[in-house]
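Researcher: Next sequence.
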Amino acid sequence: MKKLLLLGLFIAIVIAVFVSPFASSNPDGLEKVAENKNFLHNAKNIFTAPIPDYSLPGINNKTIAGSLAGATGVVLVFALAYGIGFCLKNKKSKQ
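Model: Next structure:
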């Protein structure tokens, strides 16, 4: 099971590294509607994105920054999901 998990993580990282540099700089659907309906200025940022717009501070090359941001995002989400699963598994086994 661990080999399959690591293989999936590796494939996700490879995809993120090679696909994230092609992320669109255009606004997503919700942001576009907010622009079109003139209420984007009312938006309040409750949370700050850890890696906004696939950019990393100190890295000026957008391709490299996009690749690193994509890989970092995959690793962070994997670690979070794995941690939650580990906690739930331990909680269930103690009952």
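Model: Residues 2-25+53-94 form one domain. The helical segments are 2-19, 29-36, 62-94.
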